[in-house]
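Before any further analysis, backbone shapes were mapped to integers, which produced the following:

***
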Amino acid sequence: MARLLLAFAAAALLQAGAVAAQPPADPAPILRAAGLDLPERLCSLTRRQLVAGSDSVRATYEVAGGSVDIFIVPIARPLAEEFAETEQIIGRLHTDLTALRDLAGPPGVPGVIGRLWRGALASRPVVTGMLLWHHGGLRIKLRGTVAAALADSAWPEIECAVRALARARTTA
């Protein structure tokens, strides 16, 4: 009986090891469905991370004074509902949050909702922006946060990256 239990335990460990040793998911099919390419560089932004799951992709880009995250996941609810929920979350994370302006979406991408806010995050003044849209059954969210002191130079670079994403989308 002890040998049988040891055999089952060894088999379970081998199977767990096999699962853990699987290669990371390929982001290409999800990026194609989203109509996007996430190159190493987008204007002055440098990609620091690209993680793919079975049905999602997350990329993080570095910009002076902050970062930009791009999340691609299956659509879970209507765009306006998701935007309102995310705006509430941003409001809970930031103090003294003030909406500065709505953001234009990437050229040629219909139905984008975007907004730029000023507030404080961990007692540090920041500017946070978000763009949200649907494409190919996926929700694409671009969220960037930069130090408020650097926002005048960093945010135009983020908007440049958004335009570059749109150009890649229309030429793909």
About this structure: Residues 27-171 form a domain with the Protein Transport Mog1p; Chain A fold (CATH 3.40.1000.10). The helical segments are 2-20, 28-34, 79-93, 151-171. The chain has a mean pLDDT of 83. Strands lie at 41-42, 45-52, 57-63, 66-74, 95-102, 113-121, 124-135, 138-147.
